[in-house]
Design brief:
Chain B: It comes from Paenibacillus endophyticus. The structure holds three protein chains of three kinds. Chain A is α/β, with parallel strands linked by helices. Chain A has 19 helices and eleven strands. Classes of the chains: A alpha/beta, B mainly alpha, C mainly alpha.
Chain lengths: 451, 281, 297
């Protein structure tokens, strides 16, 4: 989850959700057991003798955040069972990105890495030459059920430098605005399908004495994902390529007419006093709790929301999800997707095992387990109807499959530009800067990185 | 003997200020306790100062106790703190003794070098230190943390102990030499015992810093069973805020504070004396 | 062994281990850190590009550095004034003013010092929470409309809101230092002052203050150093330097740049800035405070 990116209140150094048993124990077990498998045997055994499976050592690094680690443990132990000779090491935890940093610098990397959490940025890893070019592998690769990987993915791997793939999206979801259907029915408010309806609903909400939009001011990428980005795409006539242009830092991509139109919409909300005044100092939990308490009508967030807040949902609360509101009447909805990716290290010592693990993990069965264990979506087209994935996730699936919906590409901004964007957006939503300055700041940040 | 007349208005103001500050430090503790006994609806719908409703949720305490390794957090913190204090005391006392009692060439330079190290922002050396520990195989180990903390405690220890050794009378030292004791012997059996209160004060002040140190602890150790208390707490806090488990969060915070408070109250006199000893040069 | 050889051996045994330890674990990382400041380095590869003084040039142009330095000194000045005033007052109260229950205060006021900064951050974030928080709920008792101030979210209140927890957490420690200093003042001085009929205030000015000044000086320097080097932890926990970098201090900006935006070289440059400013501030302060003692004497 993107959300976990900077999540906690704590010195985000260490971040989140570590379940008591995580990481260490498992690797301890496997480490202790098989001292005899030497690397030389690996090469000779590989492929030739499939009954014995892979051998040698295999290390996987994964951030333990909002998704917990139970899926990982399950999948890894399955992979272990299929390859009993393989010595698997798990490097996991809420602070794993910072802790593994020196090893990445020295080139002593794990084989597979799940890129998530504070201190991780796939674009940076690619720039630093840490990740293996997977373009060829992904053209052919099939999972262990014999399905071609790229056929069953919901979101295709992001193309870098035009055509190259370095990462494979493992988690898929969508940003958007959330509201309480029951509450809206009770008050007679209408869930908006375009900008003028959104503003009209907001007027009604405001008249009733509560804030219309609350957001996670400490982590402004929520409102960027849930409102600003879809507005930019809508402003671009529903053409999502503008986000890719921005990610590629093209000159003018942060100040063109589409952006101007989107920012004008944000400013309209600010001018009409529709953004909760306290939101600027709220982290995600604070904001979400207050939204659940009906202190505000809408909140921008991601699809993990219902699962994340499951314990605090008041009686009778009904999650509603709107992917975008900035479009004009009759125009398509915009879905701004987010992904968390998995990758193979450029300096992986056991590439064979790394690829085999990817092929093992990306199955429909594992996707269903992911939905059940984390409540979120794995990036695989699997039938979730009978699973415990949250209702709102299923509702969102309906949007993805609708032909009045445009799914924007996943675009990962350079870390500096991303920070500048978050800063500028929070300043804009508190009325401290004007739209022009937002654009100036972003163009300047992009120009600086381009150099 | 306080014979001085005191202005009654000034007395009143004094008491009011003392009372206000007492509230400011005690109330958060009480409030944390109340919070630890509440469930989420009470947090969201009641005033923040509302008393917890019955039944009191004592299970919040057992819940955090079972989910997080408080025993090991405490054990690690105690180990790391005591280890670093002992090691840094030895290293600081020996150097401080020489710098304070002998006029050696370069002594001043050395003294100011150590002194200026107190102003070094440790975060600047964080990454290189990381590599250093990594190369030495000391990442993810209690001894590694002890070495790092010892180094961070040295400059302050030397600073205080130098001024402390300087105040000791020369006669004692001379008497020891006349008795035929060597330098080391004199230091060990005569001077060091005399400097005990200085050592205590250094130990306490460095100990407080190390006990609460968070950044290095969180970067140099990534195994839950090796977490120190601040690191464990930070992980717990993130996790619980994320799951909005406020009651258990406050229970956990309280669990981390109470043992320290009890120790503080028991050793209050010694701690005050220790700090005093350092203060009164 | 000759006397001088024994003497030399003794010096080596007593000085060398400490010095080597210091070099390895303090000096070396710092020198390395300073070295990094001359490179363009993401912190993710072995490749480092030497860029000379470019990071330093960028530092001088970076408006956020200006904000951060300003915020740091706001905290330094605020903490020195706040802590010294209150700690001195409380120290005098529990030693010279014959108040009831003085030992109790000495215990109670120290409580915040044994609490981890992580806990302090959580408690105070809750105090400042705009809707559920203690402060706004309390203020709302006196207003017709609910107070919704986002204390940590508005540039003109955020730094102030960060200052209070820092003062709160610091008082006890410095109070104990000052108590110690006052108790070491010979009682005869006060008796003499009593005989002269000097008021409490007069006694404070003419006896207590000059004789505890040395300790106050140490305390002030200690506050300055710990604030410039360590204040960022609380800042990071409470605001992460936001909104829009308005509460950034040098330490948090260093962290943001190095670990979040992958400019380890630039982060090291900020570290050097902290080091230089700490040294300068301490030296200047030492001069200033020394002069004042002379004036008072």
């Amino acid at each position: 989850m993107k959300l976990k990116q900077t999540l906690g209140g704590g010195l985000a150094l260490m971040l989140v959700l570590l379940s008591a048993a995580c990481g260490g124990t498992n690797s301890g077990n496997t480490n202790g057991g098989t001292p005899d498998a030497s690397p030389t045997e690996v090469a000779s055994n590989n492929g030739a003798d499939s009954s014995k499976g892979l051998t040698g050592e295999f290390e996987i690094q994964y951030f333990v955040g909002g998704y917990g680690d139970s899926w990982w443990k399950e999948v890894i132990s399955g992979f272990q069972a299929a390859n009993p000779e393989l010595k698997i090491t798990q490097s996991a935890g809420p602070n794993i990105n910072d802790q593994m940093r020196p090893r990445w610098i020295q080139g002593d990397t794990p084989d597979v890495v799940f890129i998530d959490g504070a201190g991780s940025n796939e674009r940076q890893m690619i720039d630093d030459g840490q990740l293996m070019d997977l373009t060829e592998f992904l053209k052919e690769a099939e999972n262990t059920d014999g399905e071609k990987l790229t056929d069953i993915l919901i979101s295709q791997p992001t193309a870098y430098e035009g055509t190259k793939n370095y990462t494979l999206p493992l988690v898929f979801g969508s940003w958007g605005l959330f509201y309480d259907k029951a509450f809206f029915n009770e008050k007679g408010w209408k869930a908006p399908t375009n900008w003028s309806e959104f503003v009209a609903t907001n007027e009604q909400v405001k008249a009733s004495g509560i804030s219309s939009l609350i957001h996670t001011g400490v982590y402004p990428y929520y409102i960027n994902g849930g409102l600003v980005d879809s507005a930019i795409v809508a402003g671009n006539g529903g053409d999502g390529s503008i986000l890719t242009q921005q990610a590629n830092l093209e000159e003018g991509s942060f100040s063109g007419p589409a952006v101007q139109k989107a920012l004008a919409q944000v400013v309209e909300l600010v001018d009409k006093g529709m953004i909760d005044p306290g939101a600027v100092s709220l982290n995600h939990t604070d904001a979400q709790i207050q939204w659940l308490q009906h202190k505000a009508a809408f909140i921008p967030s991601g699809l993990w929301l219902e699962n994340e807040m499951s314990k605090d949902i008041p009686e009778g609360f009904e999650f509603g999800f709107i992917p975008s509101v900035a479009q004009g009447a009759g125009e398509n909805n915009i879905v701004i997707p987010y992904t968390n990716t998995i990758a193979i290290a450029e300096k992986a010592k056991n590439v064979e095992a790394a690829k085999a693990f990817v092929q093992y993990a990306f199955t429909k069965a594992n996707a269903i387990r992911w939905a059940e264990l984390t409540g979120a979506l794995m990036n695989i087209k699997a039938d979730l109807t009978n699973t415990s994935a949250s209702e709102v996730v299923k509702e969102a699936m309906a949007f993805f499959n609708s032909d009045t919906t445009t799914v924007a590409p996943v675009a990962v901004l350079n870390a500096d530009v991303e920070k500048a964007k978050q800063d500028a957006t929070i300043a804009l939503t508190t009325g401290r800067i004007k739209a022009e300055e937002w654009m100036q700041r972003l163009e300047a940040a992009a120009a600086k990185v381009r150099k | 003997m306080m014979l001085t007349k005191q202005n009654p208005a000034a007395r009143l103001v004094t008491y009011i200020l003392l009372l206000l500050w007492t509230i400011a430090v005690v109330y958060p503790m009480v409030w944390t306790l109340f919070g630890a006994l509440k469930d989420n609806p009470q947090f969201m719908q009641k005033q923040p100062w509302a008393l917890p409703e019955f039944p009191l949720l004592w299970q919040n305490f057992t819940y955090v106790w079972e989910r997080y390794g408080f025993q090991s957090y405490f054990a690690n913190s105690i180990l790391v703190t005591v280890g670093s204090i002992l090691l840094s005391s030895i290293l600081a006392a020996t150097t401080a003794y020489v710098l304070a009692r002998f006029a050696i060439k370069g002594g001043q330079v050395l003294y100011y070098l150590y002194l200026s190290a107190m102003m070094i922002p440790m975060i600047l050396g964080l990454i290189p230190l990381f590599f250093l520990l990594n190369d030495m195989g000391l990442i993810n180990s209690i001894p590694g943390l002890i070495l790092v903390y010892t180094a961070s405690a040295l400059p302050f220890g030397i600073f205080v102990l130098v001024s402390f050794f300087k105040t000791l009378p020369k006669e004692l030292e001379e008497a020891a030499y006349i008795d035929g004791a060597g330098y080391a012997r004199t230091f060990w059996s005569v001077m060091l015992p005399l400097a005990r209160s200085g050592l205590i004060s250094v130990g306490i002040m460095n100990g407080l810093t190390i006990w609460n140190e968070y950044i290095m602890g969180s970067v140099f150790v990534n195994k839950p069973e090796l977490y120190t208390l601040p690191v464990g707490l930070a992980v717990m806090q993130n996790e619980m805020q994320y799951r909005t488990e406020w009651g258990p969060l406050f229970a956990g915070l309280l669990l981390s504070i109470v043992p320290v408070l009890i120790i503080y109250i028991i050793f209050q006199r010694q701690i005050a004396e220790g700090v005093t000893a350092g203060a009164v040069k | 062994m000759t006397q001088s050889a024994r003497r030399r051996t003794f010096f080596i045994i007593f000085l060398l281990p400490t010095f080597l330890f210091f070099c390895l674990f303090t000096l070396y990382p710092i020198v390395k850190g300073v070295q990094i400041s001359f490179f363009d380095w993401s912190g993710g590869t072995k490749e480092m590009d030497f860029i000379g003084l470019d990071n330093y040039k960028q530092l001088l142009r970076d408006p956020i550095v200006g904000t951060a330095v300003g915020n740091d000194y706001f905290l330094v000045v605020g903490k020195v004034i706040g802590i010294m005033l209150l700690a001195t007052f409380f120290a005098v109260a529990v030693t010279r003013l014959n108040v009831w229950g003085k030992n109790v205060y000495r215990v109670l006021f120290f409580i915040p010092n044994v609490i981890s900064v992580v806990v302090i951050g959580v408690l105070w974030r809750y105090v400042y929470n705009p809707n559920l928080g203690f402060l706004n709920s309390f203020l709302s008792l006196f207003t017709s409309e609910r107070v919704q101030t986002a204390w940590l979210g508005e540039p003109h209140t955020a730094m102030m809101s960060l200052l209070w927890p820092s003062i709160w957490a610091g008082i006890g420690f410095y109070m104990i230092l000052l108590v110690a200093a006052i108790l070491s003042i010979p009682g005869e001085l006060y008796e003499a002052a009593d005989l002269d009929g000097a008021s409490q205030w007069r006694q404070f000015l003419s006896v207590t203050l000059p004789l505890m000044w040395e300790q106050m000086k140490v305390s002030i320097l200690h506050i300055v150093m710990t604030t410039l080097n360590g204040s960022f932890i609380l800042v990071w926990i409470m605001t992460e330097g936001g909104p829009d970098n308005s509460t950034q201090v040098m330490g948090s900006y260093l962290y943001q740049m190095g670990f979040r935006q992958y400019h380890m070289g630039y982060a090291a440059t900020i570290g050097v800035l902290i080091l230089v400013l700490s040294l300068l501030t301490t030296i200047i302060l030492q001069r200033v405070l020394k002069r004042e003692t002379i004036e008072m004497a």
